[in-house]
Amino acid sequence: MGGIDGLLEIAIRMGASDAKAIRSEDIVVRDWVRLKCMFGCDGYGKRLTCPPYSPSPDELRKILKEYRWAILFKFEKDIVKEHCDLIKHQRDLHTFVVRMEKEAFLRGFYSAFGFGAGACPNCDKDCNLGGCIHPDLARPSMEGCGVDVFATVEKAGFIPRVAKKRNEKPIFYSLLLVI
Prior knowledge:
The chain is of the alpha+beta class. Helix content is 31%, strand content 13%.
């Protein structure tokens, strides 16, 4: 894996609770995942990083065949479940994955590409569907592209958990395709 170990160390220093290198073939992509976006997310069709604009599961399957390794990042944060705090947390996660993508690029992984957690939080107002005004920061979510996050996390050896009560600490994951 060479330089991937260095990226894992950087991820922890930058705030990830944990980071694991996984084979790209262990990223589970399922067609039904986007149904959760279509029927359950009020952001469907409202952001260029979300379905129907984000890569489809079939497109992602093709892309994953061009990669051997990815890094899965875990984040356990104490956040208040208020809208503004959740948006700030999502913005931090998206910023993190973009920074990790840059670190990977600078270390020779020129094909690195990151996926955020949840909807893109970079515009304070509605997303400009005519063209992204923050293409340097915008990244699609794993689930928006059809990644079964629970199955992928489990394959990586993490234990997926849903925060069921307001006082429970949520766990978020993001992904970086490396090489």
